[in-house]
Structure formats: structure tokens, C-alpha cells
Amino acid sequence: MDTELISKKELLQEAGISYGQLYRWKRKGLIPEDWFVRKSTFTGQETFFPRAKMLARVERILGMKNEDLSLDDIADAVSPSLADVSLTLAEIRQRGLFSEAAVDAFVSAHPGEEALPFGGLLSLCVLDSMLRTGEVSLEEGQIVLDALDSGLAQFENKEADVLFVRKMGLSTALLVPSSAPVAIESGARVVTRLGVSECSEALSARIR
Amino acid sequence: MTTSEKKLGDVRINGDGAVAGGTVGNVVINGAGSITSDMEANALRINGAGSADGDVSAKTIVVNGQGTFRGAVHVEEMTVNGDASINAGLGVGTLKATGNVSIGGGVAAHDIKLKGLLRVGGDCDAETFDGDGAFEIGGLFNAGTIDLRLYGPSKAREIGCERITVRNGKKIPWFWVWTEKALKVDTIEGDDISLEYTKARVVRGKAVTVGDGCVVDLVEYSHSYSRVGDAQVGEARKIDSEEATTDETVSTGDELDTE
Question: Within a domain: residue B6?
Fold first, then answer.
């Protein structure tokens, strides 16, 4: 995950938006609270943002504004409330939302489930993205699913990243808060780090 | 309310009493009353002193006298004449308050109209704030427009807004107890900023006017800046913005003191 930061002033100049706009978007929930990182600088406390995420988000909001969407519509799109969405396995396969391999892996981990609620879809989406990186094998995908099943509920209102770590042929998956830095011994390697909220946004776009 | 809705029971406490919460219709407390658990009501009216131990959600809340809420409050319209204190957060459509309102947690409001003092422990979000009096915001005060006539010492950690106007309030005898009239804030960021009697480390905006009684270390503006009256400004910097800067103006009451 890119942890490079952008200062508020830089952001406004680069994106061509005003303070008023930025604060309005924050009030409307278009920008997540934990993207506002307060840091001490030599001029005092200043606010920073995760650069890549923030610039992408601003571009998306400005793009949607050009389509004459209201701020409330945009808020729905960027922080989707899909709690009541549910798709059957047949629908998922038919629409080709995810790779067959990912769906098969999910089914073997959750035998007997015919319809997936949003949580299940999200796990499947994360698994699919992990497998697509080519760094994670199908068997290892089960480890990711296991981590998601047991841990994702704890991150209900926070942004989580999925980490896949490998050391000398052993592998494991972790869930950590998006803003948290992770330190790891030199013998081990973080194979991929994936933001669950990005998956959730991509998922909402694909389902609609 | 339509008549087809299920009629909910009304609650009335006259004198002194305590009731459990639950889902109820209209609740009136005349005298001293307490609600001992979470309550969902159509309307809550306190004449005298009332307290709620749990969370309260209602269409309207009116406090004449004193209201103490130990949980969170969600309400479409809240009117306070006197004192109201909320230990947790407040979500409110319109808050009209004359007197003191203090909130331990954060506030998310659409409109706030204040005559008196507003204290917020956390962040305060509002589309419009119109106040005669003072506020103390522990975190960020994020509002569309802020109009404050100062009648006492005010402070906020940060203010972010589209438009803010701070003026010196007219003298009203009742407010004389407060000696120092000033808004103290670390940072103000917005589009149109017009200040009086404000002490700030940094003020950043498109159009910034710093007036009487202000002490500001640094002003950063993208379009226009003016210093009026006896304002003290450490440094004023023009920041280039991506937007057109054709109508830029810089005017100062007298010479601009840089460093």
C-alpha cells in the first residue's frame, strides 16, 4: 500500500479545489475520516492525506460532479451501503463478476452456501483480486478467506488492508488497519497488500 | 404524523417522577423527571428539570429549564431555553438554543441558531451556524457558513468552512460578565473569511479580511486580502491556485507589515 502523503495545501493546488469544497466533502462523508492525518511540522500541526487514494478520490468526485450528480449521490457511490445486497452463486457465475477459480475456491471453503450477502461478496472480491496478482496460489487463497471470515467483522467501520506474508515456503494472511504501518522480520516478505475498501468500491461499481 | 399510525402512549410527569424509556408518543415533564433507559419518542418537552439516562431519539425536543442527557441524542428539531447538556454525541437537524448547550461528544447538525454559549467536546459539523454569544469547540468546527457575533471568549481547535464572518457583538448588559471578547483558534481555512477580534496562528482562504482586534501570525490567500483597522498580521502570503486569478486585489488599511 502506498503510504506516501500529500499535504492539504499541495492537494488543493494539484486538484484545483478550494478549502470550502474540501470541508464540504468531508461533512458529506465523501472523504473518510481516517484519511485526515494530522502531523506536526515545523510550522505547527498540519493535515496530510494518503496521496494516491486522495487524488483518485478527488478526481472521481469532480468527475461525478461533471455528470451533475448531487453530493449525496456521490457519497452513496464512494461509500456504498450495500448491506442488503445478496447474489446467488448462479448469478455470480453467470455475470462473470469474478474468476471461476476464485468462485470455486470460495465454494470449497463455504460448502452449501447458495446466496452470498455483501460480506461474502466482499471476501470473494478480495480473494479474486489476490489471485489475480499471480502472487497467491489457490491453496493460499483459503488462508486469505479464513483470515477474512474470522477478522473482517472487527473492521466494521474502519478501513482494513489484507496482508499476505510468506517466509520460506510458509504463508499466512493478516488483516490490519489501513493507516497502520507494518514491520516484519527480514526473512519474511509481504507478498501483497490490498485495501478492502477499494475492493468494496470496485465491487459496488461492478454489481450496479 | 398521520392518524393511521399506531397510537403510541403519551407520558406525563407532573411534580417529581421517573419513568422507563421505550417507544412512546409525546413526553412532557413538568417539574422534575427522569427517564431511566433508552427512549424513542415523538416529542419530548421538559419544563423544569429533566434527565435521560439512555440514548434519546425524537422528532422534537424542547427544553425550558434544564435538560441532562447522559447518552446520545438524535433529534430533528431541538429547542433549548436554559441549559442542556449531552454527555455523548448530538445529531440534530435544527438546533435553536438560548442559554447554554454543552455536548461531550461530537455534533452533526444541519442548522444551529445560538444565543448564548455552545460547548462541544469533539468535532462540530453544521451547514449553517448563526450565533450571538460564544462557542468552545474541542476539535474541528466544519461548517458551510459561520456567522458569529462575539459576546465572550470563544475557541476552537480548527475551523474549516466555506464562509465565516466574526464580528464584535453589541453590548448587552447580560453578557458583561465575560470580560475578554475574542475567538482563539489555531487554524481557519475557508473560501470567504472576514474576521474581527480573532487570534489565530494561520488563516488560509480565497478572500481574507482581517479586521479590528485581530492577531494573526500568518495569512495565506489565493485571491484577495485586506487588513483593516488595528489588525496585527505577522505575514501575508499570496498562494497561487489553479483557478483563474484575474480579479485579484490586495488592499490594506495601511502598510502591510511583513515580518
Answer: no
Helical pair A196-207 and A118-132, crossing angle rounded to 10 deg: 110
Residue B7 in grid coordinates: 397510537
CA distance B145 to B166: 11
pLDDT exceeds cutoff 50 at B258: no
Other beta carbons within 10 Å of A188: 14
pLDDT surpassing 60 at residue A162:
yes
Number of domains in chain B: 1
Domain residues for the domain of B188 are 45-252
Count interface pairs A-B at CB distance under 8 A.
Answer: 58
Mutate: best of B157, B186, B191, partner A, most A CBs <10 A: B191
Q: Do B241 and A13 touch (CB under 8 A)?
A: yes
Res. B3 pLDDT band, cuts 50 70 90? very low
Within 8 A by CB and 6+ apart from B181, the residues are B150, B151, B152, B153, B168, B169, B197, B213
How sure is the predictor about A186, in pLDDT bands with cuts at 50, 70 and 90? confident
Q: What is the pLDDT of residue A75?
A: 75
Residue B2 resides in a domain: no
Determine how many CB atoms are found less than 10 A away from the CB of residue B52: 27
Given this model, what pLDDT does residue A84 score? 65
Q: Strand pairing of B22-23 and B39-52? A: parallel
Q: Does a structural domain hold residue B24?
A: no
Q: Where are the domains of chain A?
A: 5-78, 86-207
What percent of chain B stands above pLDDT 90?
A: 82
Q: Is pLDDT of B68 > 80?
A: yes
- Helix or strand (DSSP H, E) at A102: helix A100-109
Burial group, residue B193, by CB count within 10 angstroms (0-12, 13-18, 19+): buried
Residues of chain A positioned with their CB less than 8 A from the CB of B189: 8, 19, 23
B125, B191, B218 ranked by CB distance to A20: nearest: B191
Q: In what order do the strands lie in the sheet with A189-195?
A: A170-177, A160-167, A189-195
What whole-number percentage of chain A has pLDDT above 70?
Answer: 94
**Domain membership flag for residue B9:** no
Bridge partner residues of B78 (DSSP): B61, B95
Q: What is the pLDDT of residue B173?
A: 60
What are B239's three cell numbers? Answer: 498562494
| E strands, B70-123, in order | 73-86, 90-103, 107-120
User: Higher confidence at residue B108 or residue A117?
Assistant: B108
Helix A71-78 and helix A196-207, axial crossing angle in degrees, nearest 10: 110
CATH no. for A5-78 = 1.10.1660.10
